[in-house]
Amino acid sequence: MIRKPGLAAAGLSAALCVATMTAPVTAETPKRGGTLTFMIPADAPPSFDGHRETTYATVHAVAPFYSVLIRVNPDNPSSTTEFVCDLCTEMPKPSDDGKTYTFKIRQGVKFHDGSLLTAADVAASWQEIVHPRDGLSSARESYFIMVDKVEAPDATTVVFRLKFATNAFLPSLADPFAWIYKKEILDKDPHWFEKNIMGSGPFKFAGDEIGQSIKGVRNPDYYHQGQPYLDGFIGIFAAKQAVRVDAIRADRAAIEFRGMPPSARDELVRELGDKITVQSSDWNCGNLVTPNHKKKPFDDVRVRRALALAIDSWHSAPALAKIATVHTVGGIVFPGSPLAASKEELEKLAGFWPDIGKSREEARRLLKEAGTDGLKFELMNRNVDQPYKYVGTWLIDEWSKIGLQVTQRVLPTGPFFDALRHGTFDVTVDFNCQSVVNPLMDIGKFLPHSVYAENYGGYDDQKEIELYQAVLHETDSTKQRAMIREFETYVLDTQAHMLMTPWWYRVIPYRSYVKGWKISPSHYVNQDLANVWLDK
Amino acid sequence: MYRYIVSRVLLVIPTLVGAAALVFVLMRLIPGDICVVRLGSGGGSVDPRAVAVCHAELGLDHPLIIQFLDFVWGFFRLDFGISMWSGKPVAEEIAARLPISLEIAVMATVVAILIAIPLGTISALKQNSWIDHVVRTTAIAGIATPSFWLGIVSILVVLDVSHALFGAPWMPPIDYVPFWQDPLRNLSMAVLPALTVGYRYAAVTMRMTRSAMLEVLREDYIRTARAKGLIERLIINRHALKNALLPVVTLIGIEFAFLIGGLVVTEQVFNLNGIGRLLVLAVQNQDYTLTQALVMLTVAIFVFANLAVDLLYAWLDPRIRLG
């Protein structure tokens, strides 16, 4: 078995950082047939509608039934920059100074009811995602602020007209929830897809036992030559981790696609040896720390900087990685992205200084200067074990080293979000979990609430917004990278609006007979199962 | 007898209306809003206009009294409405979960009766003997051991033992198949949860059987039966056990009703898609319609289980005349 050593360093190249495996992936000839049984770590999706939902429970259960316009390359999903066509024939080159993208749509693609899929279906679906009609909600509308219009001038052409050119557009377009629905059904009843499934993807819907399982069978008319390899799949919902681990151990299921903690991986590898393969990757998710700027003394930048300076991520991350689903130290951009900060760049920011003694000395000085040495406060956290509670406990220990007295208030998910929305916390463990790596959109989390609704810091900062707008509109990658550094320095160091903790780490232990599936930095991505096969 | 049954059934109506009022009020006292939970499931802030549209769609913008009357009227027509969370009919949501919950409840009850009544009786007959001590210790262990813990341990034992014996770990199926579709798969899935739940159930029932038997065995009519030379087996079966079963039957009825919606953690341990898990989800999601329907279902089961117990009394003790 090959196992790459843990790398807890920021700004590593995508090739090094993104995915590691315990077994070499060699080009094997896929075998046909068999049914893949996999676990879905949830009770059930609230609905089947990808345009409306944000949960992996929906995407894991339903993505195999649908096609998308473009996607992250399923044969190289760890890449943060490689996008390929699914329903289109060729990735377009933008025209009109980067403001128009014209896609040619495959001909002969059939929906599962036998009708032909045309550009009108693609445009209608995208219209609902980008500009949903009144009374409908699109969970990703804010990702498409750059889109002006979506048009289908003929049966094989879809045109996206943008308000401004931006590098954020194509990664946004590769959203794994952006399923193509049949226009005729959408026109008749836009809510139809919440309770029904009818797509053009690699599998046809074969049944749903409410709250228990979902089944699909091979679509013989699938347009990607030879795929899918499986005869079908069964997704079993199980919210409890022990059930999922036991199920894989007993071969009641072969895989779970979200991610397991290191202890579960170790247990399966110990029990089953080479019958288990492990893929792991940095995860485009992370816990942040958000001080409530509306509460004293967190309105004082010196106090916020002190909180950051007390944290020793460089030395803590390797230890935390042994018990929690976190791994790599990084800045605001996903560590595998070309736009991410290098280790040298990070080391200049508060919270990343290489000399932790000096860093904590500065933290103490700032607290004293602000008249808050020996500060007592409450850290709010979410009642989720991995990695929230581990991260929270670690943070409290780190802060205790500069004399802060912090207690942790752990709340169930509902009250946790309620407290975030109402600002009833001192400092909170927050999170930023994104899908396709799209740094320009992903860093929106750091913007004030007036711009980004899921920011709960309670601050407004016009300079920060201006810095972000400049980054978003810049299309030259080199300049963009420099501008992101400026934004990052401003957010994490100058203002210390939010604090970073090590990025999450996705660990997928699975039965070795499952082949073809490759890990990506997001548990939402690459879930249509078209290239999965069973070596049984 | 007929009048008794009718009067008991009629008594069910105010009981159900009272329960309906209670659950209706309690659900609305819980802080939070299903529309906020639904629209902000990813943790995001929620547009108040979207919340208003959602309230209108779900009928939550109507006055509370109208909502309550809608709910009660729907209940008596057996129309539980639509789940506010999933948009599916509540009846469909419950129908998908009820069979597994009923099956586990029935199997656990059978397990409990098969274990508890013989052992409880023997324990009473052999009072203070080593048999009595063993039975009582087993019963106390059963009461003290949480079913879910026993469930976790039993799965691990099955996994480890099968791994050691056959070289590959085995565990029961984790997806439910109805009995009539695949009896073997169905039973292999249900047997472990039924045993683990049934053990605790048996323990409680065993102690009740023992104490009831001890009491009855000291009655004058038992002494008289023995004095007139009746054979011991007949005394135990016909005179002692039948009378001792009265409180045991009450206990079995209450426990059975509890099992339908009360196996929340056990259902999670065995990944059973049952009513208990659904109820927790419904409360978590603040799904008023589903929670109300599930609570009313549980109340109805309790009420009818108690009615059945009362009717059984007459059969067990002819001195009791109903009506």
What does this structure look like?
The complex is a heterodimer of chains A (536) and B (323). Chain A has 536 residues and is an alpha+beta fold. Helices cover 29% and strands 20% of the residues of chain A. Chain A has helices at residues 14-17, 56-62, 119-130, 169-173, 183-188, 192-195, 241-249, 262-272, 301-309, 313-323, 343-346, 356-369, 385-400, 413-422, 439-442, 462-473, 477-494, and strands at 19-21, 35-40, 70-72, 83-85, 100-104, 147-154, 157-162, 203-209, 213-218, 232-237, 255-256, 276-291, 376-382, 405-411, 427-433, 499-511, 514-515, 533-534. In chain A, the strands form five sheets. In chain A, strands 1, 12, 13, 14, 15 and 16 form a six-stranded mixed β-sheet that branches. In chain A, strands 8-9-10-2-11 form a five-stranded mixed β-sheet, sandwiched between helices. Chain A has a three-stranded antiparallel β-sheet with strand order 5-7-6, covered by helices on one side. Chain A is globular, with a radius of gyration of 23 Å. By secondary structure, chain B is mostly helical. Helix content of chain B is 77%, strand content 0%. Chain B has 13 helices and no strands. Chain B has helices spanning 2-29, 34-39, 48-58, 64-76, 90-125, 130-144, 147-166, 183-217, 220-227, 232-262, 264-269, 275-284, 288-316. The radius of gyration of chain B is 24 Å and the shape is globular. Classes of the chains: A alpha+beta (536), B mainly alpha (323). The interface between A and B is large, with 44 and 47 residues.
Give a topology summary.
The complex is a heterodimer of chains A (536) and B (323).
Chain A: H1 14-17, E1 19-21, E2 35-40, H2 56-62, E3 70-72, E4 83-85, E5 100-104, H3 119-130, E6 147-154, E7 157-162, H4 169-173, H5 183-188, H6 192-195, E8 203-209, E9 213-218, E10 232-237, H7 241-249, E11 255-256, H8 262-272, E12 276-291, H9 301-309, H10 313-323, H11 343-346, H12 356-369, E13 376-382, H13 385-400, E14 405-411, H14 413-422, E15 427-433, H15 439-442, H16 462-473, H17 477-494, E16 499-511, E17 514-515, E18 533-534
Parallel strand pairs in A: 2-10, 2-11, 13-14, 13-15
Antiparallel strand pairs in A: 1-12, 3-4, 5-7, 6-7, 8-9, 9-10, 12-15, 12-16, 17-18
Helix pairs in contact in A: 9-12, 16-17
Chain B: H1 2-29, H2 34-39, H3 48-58, H4 64-76, H5 90-125, H6 130-144, H7 147-166, H8 183-217, H9 220-227, H10 232-262, H11 264-269, H12 275-284, H13 288-316
